[in-house]
Amino acid sequence: TDRYAVIGNPVAHSRSPAIHARFARQTAQDIAYDRLPAPLDGFVATVEAFRAAGGKGLNVTVPFKVEAFDYCTHRSARAAAAGAVNTLAFRDDGVHGDNTDGVGLVRDIGQRLGFRFEGARVLMLGAGGAARGVLLPLLDAGVARLTIANRTASRAHELAALAGDARAAGCGFDALGSAASGEGFDLVVNATSAGLDDAAPAVDEAVYDGVRLAYDMVYGARPTAFMRQAGARGCPAVSDGLGMLVEQAAESFFIWRGVRPLTAPVYRDLRAELA
Ligand code: ATR
């Protein structure tokens, strides 16, 4: 039995063990996957103890994704662009770090929700770690334009510059819905942490006009404030981020085991459990 875990603080409510247990059953992989709580000042010590005990890999969640990036000896292009790591694989030649959040977002939106990224005009709300983590996969998916809007405009400008891609541009919330935002968007992704207080980002609701899908990176038993905001403005499809959670887990599972689990049945189970 190979051992894996999710490390975080807090980690008690993580759904990752339930997801990976289902993947393992489905693909007949002999693994164990636990929760690994770490003190805020004890990330490295906790990881080293897990490795010393034979652990093969870790998922990394709040607030350790940047520390995990620093800890790696090898980093994927996705991890480098994100500046953060959510998947560690302990191998003979060192510690491999990857970031599966962005590909998880793109797969959930592209496959489960059937949204076509090629040529799409995308608005991302937020410019923190969550936004940065998904930037490269969104651009790689072939979007025509990626507008990063943030409450604090300077952070949006910085993140757009970091993307180093002519399709990416940053602005403040106040510049949205005005002439400055151009001809509108096909997809809006909420990467702010406003929802943690059950608040919607304070954007002009006109940004939702003509939008085909509004996607929140967080999830819950009830529609989030952002989903309610977009739905009230007539957005035809809204989703929370539960599917992203399942897809990023599937990509981690693939990195560790070389096998791709089916995500649709696991998504359905989790959704039913949340309700
Ligand atoms: P995370 O890792 O969740 O992205 P973060 O790096 O602290 O956390 O970034 C939080 C993001 O949510 C930022 O874009 C932040 O906007 P500011 O840069 O202006 O602070 C955004 N955010 C948090 N609370 C918000 C709110 N109530 N309304 C709008 N944006 C909010």
UniProtKB/TrEMBL annotation:
Residues the record lists as binding shikimate: 14-16, 61, 86, 101, 219, 248
InterPro entries to which the protein is assigned, alphabetical: Aminoacid_DH-like_N_sf, NAD(P)-bd_dom_sf, SDH_C, Shikimate_DH, Shikimate_DH-bd_N, Shikimate_DH_fam, Shikm_DH/Glu-tRNA_Rdtase
Stored CDD domains: NAD_bind_Shikimate_DH (cd01065)
Catalytic class of the enzyme: oxidoreductase
Residues noted as binding NADP(+) in the record, renumbered to the chain: 126-130, 150-155, 217, 241
Single GO cellular component term: cytosol
Family: Belongs to the shikimate dehydrogenase family.
Subunit field text: Homodimer.
Protein name (record): Shikimate dehydrogenase (NADP(+))
Species per Swiss-Prot/TrEMBL record: Quisquiliibacterium transsilvanicum
